[in-house]
Prior knowledge:
This protein is an alpha+beta fold.
Amino acid sequence: MLPGLGEVYAAYVREAGALPAQPGPLQAEMWTSAQLGALEAAAPHTAARRAALGDLIGCLHAAATPGARAFLRALAAIGPAEGRAAAARAAGRLDGVPAAPWEESLGRVVPGQAWLIQEGPLDGDRLVCEFRYEGAGTAACTPSPSGSPTATPPPRSWSPGTSRR
């Protein structure tokens, strides 16, 4: 384990406790992506990042919680290529740990339509993208005011292929 990072990995394990409560696979993948972004920012050197990812996978496996299992499954589906197989193996050894309801849909997104909404020169533009997961419905992804993407299910009255202006 990289020296001095045990507390950092423990924080990731604690934060993963909220992951199974995410409403669907898109939100879980976005959560995982944010965690990976933070890890990359903390370890910008390639070798250190690979070591940190390996340590994190080991710590998640050792924790053996539903959140740790969900995080490992998400890493196996959308994580860096060099960690996917290890994350899948670690998650596979946690069969007795309850799975998140959307676990089987991770990494199985199918992009749908996209719309550019131009709200005038002062309000800026907004891009709305449709994503579908088998058995999990449709979600729309839009940038939030901070510029970070947010994923929300579309309104019940909306159906794929219709405009949302």
